[in-house]
Specification:
Layout lengths: L5 E4 L2 E4 H15 L3 H9 L3 H12 L6 E5 L5 H10 L4 E6 L2 H13 L5 E5 L12 E7 L8 H11 E12 L5 H23 L2 H13 L3 H10 L3 E8 L4 E7 L2
Parallel strand pairs: 3-4, 3-6, 4-5, 6-7
Antiparallel strand pairs: 1-2, 7-9, 8-9
Helix pairs in contact: 2-7, 3-4, 7-8
Length: 248
């Protein structure tokens, strides 16, 4: 729940201007082990989720893509393959440490034609009608004002452009929900403690997922931001969902 002065940070209520600092602290802490933890947490399935999200984006050669909350660059690399030398991908993140990690990975892989930008999703510093696709993967739940972020994404899209939101979501059946809750609150923090030496950041991860809007609610938020033909695709029994909307 967000009020005029407070918002949620996991299950805690904090001052709105404090959340950005707290989220930054989480990702500063986990940046170096981020990819290893993603593989351990999802048993490698996150790579399939990301490929499906890129396929649903319908990105083509020559297009311009903004990869928001791009982190270590997994989606940036996939989009780069699709746009080719005629297009361009901007890897953007609010967190400087994550952005440095992603930039270093892209350089190590010899990927050119990628730009880098430290930005806040709520107020994107790009001109109107700049991108053919704006994608935010596993980052929207960390944004304080999600409605402002979605409006900002809509603004920088070209007509005919697509917003893709890949995010942890809410299981579609009770059995999956119970198993997922047990894993999230009993096993995930312990993995974080042993691998990333940070139990609290991964406890926050589990809590932040539960505070994220459910599938239908997020779809309505996208529509309210001006996006049209909005739809979502559940994966792994709703543990993850891809939302897609268009600027018409």
């Amino acid at each position: 729940m967000t009020t005029d002065n407070t918002t949620h940070f996991g299950f805690k209520q904090v001052a709105v201007d404090e959340k950005v600092k707290l989220v930054r602290g989480v990702f500063d802490s986990v940046a170096e082990q981020y990819d290893v933890m993603n593989d351990l947490m999802s048993l490698g399935i996150h790579r399939i989720w990301k490929r499906i999200a890129v396929q649903l984006s319908n990105v083509r050669k020559g297009e311009h893509v903004l990869d928001l909350a791009g982190g270590t660059g997994d989606l940036t690399a996939l989009f780069n393959e699709r746009v080719g030398p005629e297009g361009q991908v901007v890897l953007a993140d609010i967190n400087a440490q994550m952005l440095r990690t992603g930039r270093d990975r892209m350089i190590d892989r010899g990927l050119a034609n990628i730009r880098y930008a430290q930005v806040n999703a709520e107020c994107l510093p790009f001109a109107d009608n700049t991108f053919d696709c704006v994608c935010i993967a596993f980052g929207l739940r960390n944004v304080t004002d999600k409605d402002a972020a979605l409006r900002s994404m809509h603004r920088v899209l070209k007509p005919g452009g697509r917003v893709i939101v890949l995010e942890f979501s809410h299981p579609t059946d009770k059995v999956t929900e119970k198993v997922y809750d047990f894993y999230s609150f009993n096993i995930l923090p312990k993995i974080g403690r042993f691998v990333a030496k940070d139990e609290e950041s991964y406890r926050y991860l589990a809590e932040s997922i539960r505070m994220h809007p459910k599938q239908e609610e997020l779809k309505m938020m996208m529509e309210n931001a001006g996006l049209e033909r909005c739809e979502y695709f559940n994966m792994t029994q709703g543990i993850v969902a891809v939302h897609r909307g268009y600027k018409i």
